[in-house]
Amino acid sequence: MNRKKQNSSGTVPIMDGEAIRRALRRIAHEIIERNPGLEKIVIAGIPSRGVEIARRIATFIQEIEKIKIETGVIDVAMHRDDVGTRPDLPVVRASKLPLPLEGRTMIIVDDVLYTGRTARAALDAINSFGRPARIQLAALVDRGHRELPIRPDYVGKNLPTALAEKVRVLLEQTDGQPDAVWLEKEA
């Protein structure tokens, strides 16, 4: 899906389901190329959409390489640096990681990379479980505006945005709507 004209609600379609599928398959190929010893990787998603994206990437790797890839969930709610400044308390979910992490490569997956603060919180959360040999970061969309020196290793789509815009990712499994990425102008 190419970037099209803004509709009356102020949203612009960026990616449809097929574009998301292609991007995640490309990320899977990049992970395979950069990580010898695939049996030692763990792909862990950040709730909620990162978990589904991690599952899809792992499935692609399994289809391509015929090897089981372990997945997990890394909840960042209590590791965020803005917990006390948010109007609502964060929803805490259980982290589930295959242990031990030592000697393994962890790939953290999120839907949108923005300031880098969620990725930093994920690093802190992982430290609660052990010390992986390496940690890598994958994002479906990188919208820029980093506040921390964090760079993704794998990106589905680089999407420069204005601060007044919001990137919205919809996935069938988490949102009950067809897969899509939208750019929204904040009112």
Describe this structure in words.
- This protein is α/β, with parallel strands linked by helices.
- It has a single domain (17-161), classed as Rossmann fold, CATH 3.40.50.
- Helix content is 27%, strand content 27%.
- The protein is built from 4 helices and 8 strands, in the order E-H-E-H-E-E-H-E-E-E-H-E.
- It has helices spanning 17-34, 49-65, 117-127, 172-175; strands at residues 11-16, 41-45, 70-73, 105-113, 134-142, 154-158, 165-170, 180-185.
- The strands form 2 sheets. A 5-stranded parallel sheet has the order 3-2-4-5-6, with helices on both faces. The protein has a 3-stranded antiparallel sheet with strand order 1-8-7.
- Strand 4 (105-113), helix 3 and strand 5 form a beta-alpha-beta unit.
- Helix 1 packs across helix 2.
- The radius of gyration is 16 Å and the shape is globular.
- The protein starts with 10 loop residues before the first strand and ends with a strand.
- 37% of the residues are buried.
CATH C-level label: Alpha Beta
Provide the helix percentage. 25-40%
The CATH topology is Rossmann fold
Count of DSSP strands: 8
- Mean pLDDT comes to 91
End-to-end gap: 25 Å
Give the percentage of residues in beta strands. Answer: 25-35%
Q: Reading side by side through the largest sheet, how are the strands ordered?
A: 3-2-4-5-6
Poorly predicted runs of 5 or more residues = none
Number of helix segments? 4
Q: How can the largest sheet be summarized?
A: 5 strands, parallel
Q: Strand pairing plus helix content: what structural class?
A: alpha/beta
The structural domain count equals 1
Gyration radius, to the nearest Å? 16 Å
Query: How do the helices and strands follow one another from N- to C-terminus?
Result: EHEHEEHEEEHE
Q: What's the shape?
A: globular
Q: Indicate the CATH architecture.
A: 3-Layer(aba) Sandwich
What is the subunit arrangement here? single chain
